[in-house]
Design goal:
- It is built from 15 helices and two strands.
- It is an all-alpha fold and about 325 residues long.
- The protein has a two-stranded antiparallel sheet with strand order 1-2.
- Strand 1 and strand 2 form a beta hairpin.
- Helix 2 packs antiparallel against helix 3 and helix 2 runs antiparallel to helix 14.
- The relative contact order is 0.12.
């Protein structure tokens, strides 16, 4: 029977011996391309309001490029190959909580919310509305702003609720999707372990890693940094979400430094990324995201990054 999702309406050791052989038959430590393709297909989602319509995963190339950047940073920082393989899988699926993203509806909701100064992430919501029960940010959003959405001709149905949950209830939605796909992951020879989910939640829920081992926290930091670096260089997302006319490395690293100042990304992770910006393989991923080569201004910025790195080392 083909897999179909239902419509919308601690830390354990890594048992690498249980990973099936296909994950080990590869060169250069990369995941096999057929496996990557299968994992990215998990983002496809049957539309609950339109029978026989499948919503393709939005910008799955972003997930693929992010995972590639993360793998290079983790390798640079000395993580073992077996752990990096599981890490790359988690990074490939880091946006799984947004499977079913209806781009026009999602964009309309969150563009309106941004103009109204409404928080779009759980931790920001809890700062503005500290009395909201933990994990009930989606419900509180609908309670406070449901009538405003209706005035924007946005229907208050289960599909709208799903698009809101993709931001404010990301943990709940991610866990729902992971439950659905774990049998398929098992068939692919992948043993899912709890730390993989933890790193996927870090950007929205850093508090969930408060008691995690340091290496788990660092892998989570790498994912956040690389995901944002890719997004800031991603022409499609720049056009769809941010009305950018062009991408800039300077803006990307400005945001990474903001994440560092907030304690979301540590100095070793940021320095590793700065070092890797001289590697052709790293640059290739980011230029693919842009759809065009770096400018001379970008290359001058990379040179300045290396000067900053040398100063940090001296």
């Amino acid at each position: 029977m083909p897999f179909r999702r239902p419509s919308d309406g601690e830390h354990l050791p890594i048992n690498t011996h249980r990973i099936s052989r296909p994950l080990h038959i590869q060169s250069g430590g990369h995941l096999p391309k057929p496996l990557i393709k299968k994992l990215l297909k998990l983002y496809d989602y049957p539309h609950p309001l339109k029978p026989h319509v499948i919503i393709p995963g939005y910008d799955t190339s972003h997930a693929r490029r992010t995972a590639s950047l993360c793998r290079m940073v983790a390798k640079h920082l000395g993580y073992p190959a077996n752990r990096i393989r599981l890490y790359e899988i988690a990074c490939l699926l880091h946006d799984l909580g947004r499977a079913g993203l209806d781009q026009p509806l999602f964009g309309k909701i969150w563009s309106w919310a941004k103009t109204q100064g409404i928080p779009t992430r759980p931790r920001e919501w809890r700062t503005m509305y500290p009395r909201t029960p933990y994990g009930q940010e989606t419900e509180d959003f609908l309670l406070r702003y449901g009538k405003d959405l209706e005035r924007q001709n946005i229907p208050l149905d289960t599909w709208t609720t799903a698009q809101i949950e993709m931001r404010l209830g990301f943990a709940r939605r991610l866990r729902k999707h992971l439950r659905e796909v774990k049998p398929l992951l098992k068939d692919m020879g992948i043993v899912w372990v709890p730390w993989m989910e933890q790193i996927m939640l870090y950007y929205y829920y850093p508090e969930k890693l408060r008691h995690a081992p340091r290496w788990v926290c660092q892998l989570a930091e790498i994912l956040v940094a690389c995901e944002q670096l890719e997004a800031y260089n991603n022409r499609q997302r720049g056009r769809d979400y941010y009305t950018r006319s062009r991408e800039s490395l300077k803006q990307a690293f400005h945001y990474l430094h903001q994440l560092q100042s907030k304690g979301m990304v540590s100095e070793p992770v940021l320095l590793a990324i700065q070092q890797l910006m001289t590697r052709q393989s790293f640059i290739k991923v980011l230029t693919e995201a842009r759809g065009k080569p770096f400018t001379q201004q970008d290359f001058r910025y990379i040179q300045n990054l290396q000067k900053d790195f040398m100063q940090c080392q001296s």
